[in-house]
Design a protein that fits this description.
The chain is of the alpha+beta class. Helices cover 25% and strands 31% of the residues. It has an eight-stranded mixed sheet, with helices on both faces.
Length: 166
């Protein structure tokens, strides 16, 4: 299970630590920069959008930003933000290519679900892109189901929205 204070082993035996972090810290900015570059390559067409996440949306009491570390190196991240009193949204889930296939995204997602519950959410929603097949498979394995587009994603033809009851 995910523990923010401790270190846990992932599926291949190396140690992964999940920590709450400030979205403006160097590790977060670095991961988000790599994420945005990857999204730009996957979605080069005009009108493709990389939806924003503002720092005030992930402050204590409104959300959380988590970073996964392996061997002291930031290898992944994710955020959760409250949309209303009962719904929280998963945002900016990402694992660097060299660290994929080690169960890190699952650990980040478990941490974000835990944070969502702590914030009082009864439902989690998320948006991913139609070309992110691995991400959609991860979310389906975690119990998320496809839903109609919501909020800022309604007019985004490349978006896939999903939800899970907590």
């Amino acid at each position: 299970m995910v523990s923010y204070a401790g270190v846990m082993s992932n599926t291949v035996g190396s140690e992964i630590e999940i920590r709450r972090a400030d979205i403006g810290c160097d590790d977060a900015v670095g991961l988000i920069t790599v994420l945005n570059a990857e999204l730009s390559r996957q979605y080069p067409e005009e009108g493709a959008t990389h939806f924003r996440l503002d720092a005030h949306e992930v402050v204590e009491g409104r959300g959380a930003f988590l970073i996964a570390y392996a061997g002291g190196k930031a290898v992944g991240c994710g955020a959760v933000r409250l949309l209303d009193g009962e719904t929280a949204e998963i945002k900016r889930m990402f694992v660097i290519p060299d660290a994929r296939g080690r169960g890190i995204s699952k650990q980040i997602l478990l941490g974000l679900e835990s944070e969502g519950r702590r914030l009082g959410a009864r439902k989690l929603v998320l948006e991913t892109g139609e070309r992110q097949v691995e991400a959609m498979a991860l979310y389906r394995r975690a119990g998320f189901e496809r839903i109609p587009a919501f909020g800022e994603y309604v007019d985004s033809p490349l978006s896939v929205c999903m939800a899970k009851e907590l």
